Amino acid sequence: MNPTAITDILRRQEIETPSWAYGNSGTRFKVFAQPGVPRDPYEKIADAATVHRFTGIAPSVALHIPWDKVSDYQHLAAYAAEHGIRLGTINANVFQDDDYRLGSVTNPDPAVRRKAVEHLLECVDIMDATGSPDLKLWFADGTNYPGQDDLRTRQDRLADALQQAYARLTGQQRMLLEYKLFEPAFYATDVPDWGTAYAHCVELGPRAQVVIDTGHHAPGTNIEFIVAFLLRQHRLGAFDFNSRFYADDDLMAGAADPFQLFRIMNEIAAAGAVTPDGGIAFMLDQCHNIEPKIQAVIRSVLNVQEATAKALLIDRTALAAAQRDGDVLAANDIIMDAYHTDVRPMLRQLREDMGLEPEPIAAYRASGYLAKVSAERVGGNAAGWGA
Ligand code: AFD
Ligand code: MN
Fold it and tell me: Measured between alpha carbons, how far is 178 from 23 in angstroms, rounded to an integer?
């Protein structure tokens, strides 16, 4: 691909940041408070807009309900637009209520299942108000002990709840179903892997798609194979990018394994699905327990951009020829040559052409934004997980 085509794609790339990445977060045992943390969705939007201001490719912010509940979502959407970004994916939350102790949509009690479905339907109402295209569903549903509940019956309950929410979608709205291998203490997870999510999406219909959270797999999983398979089935709806060393650590995307992120973006680039018309939402889903949040989100956006730029450098014609000829090492060399290319000069030039500072993190640090909001955001309740 010629350099102009590459920079054109990179200029159109969009990475969605999560509202909750700007709030306080921590381990299972302690949420560490940081200065300058937003106290409401409006301040979260201001931080997300700051990431976009310095990167140029983060024009939307995902909301999480009820963490980002407001009385007037159209007012919130207008506020986001005034700050140069838009409201993105609506994330449901049926994992922080005592009623959900034995699960939400898979709970043995029909009244609890009904409560969970009502929340999903409320999230679709919010999508109607904000214009958000996607409803993202992640269920921390599972069982802790063999015999606790019937595994197949829980799948029936899940399918029934998903069908009710799916039927509520209108226009181009999509349901994005996210899987995760386990939660601490789990014996069985109700949506543990891509196969489960995929099967339920196929059962639901074409507007149900799978979310790949890069931290939600067993160690050593070949995530790019899952990407390739779902791309071929037209069922890859979104990513939740983050990185991990051991479990679902929600570290900065690309920080733990930049080569894995490159291999994932290679599959996306090969399918021509980097830009929004490819139908994939590229979201971050991460929490910054010890590091300054906004800078960490900027770093993550840049890491995804860098991996994408390298993947776009791959000489697909030469690669196809080497693959056809069974020339193993030539094919591998072509991939590795792209991975080892320093794309930062190209990205610096791209940013200048976009009217941005060439070094976003240095520019952000020099802007004094964190000191400003730390001085302003005194009092009130700093946003967090609401746990
Ligand atoms: C969780 C899950 C899911 C959820 C998000 C915020 O990955 O994406 O919406 O983080 O709670 O780890
Ligand atoms: Mn996630």
Answer: 22
Residue 335 CB neighbours (<10 A): 18
Q: Measured from the CB, is residue 138 less than 6 Å from ligand 1?
A: yes
Both tokens assigned to 157: 């309950």
Cα–Cα distance for residue pair 248/235, rounded to 1 Å: 23
Please give the residue range of the domain that contains residue 101: 3-376
Cβ atoms 223, 241 nearer than 8 A: no
The CA-atom distances, in angstroms, between 87 and each of 17, 208, 289 are 10, 20, 24
Q: Is 381 contained in some domain?
A: no
Q: Closest residue (by CA) to atom 3 of ligand 1?
A: 138
Task: Output the pLDDT for position 385.
Answer: 77
Report which ligand 1 atom has the smallest distance to the Cα of 213: 7
- The per-type count for the chain, helices as H runs and strands as E runs, is 14, 12
* Ligand 1 contact, 213 CB (< 6 A): yes
Question: Model confidence over 323-360: pLDDT tens digits?
Answer: 999 999 999 999 999 999 999 999 999 999 999 999 99
**Which of 91, 88, 130, 29 is CA-nearest to residue 281?**
88
Work out the angle between the directed axes of helices 258-270 and 293-313 (0-180°, nearest 10): 50
20 Cβ closer than 6 Å to some ligand 1 atom: yes
pTM, two decimals, is 0.97
Number of the ligand 1 atom closest to the C-alpha atom of 136: 9
The enclosing domain of 99 has a CATH number of 3.20.20.150
Per the structure, the count of domains in the chain is 1
Domain presence at residue 316: yes
Sequence letter at residue 167: A
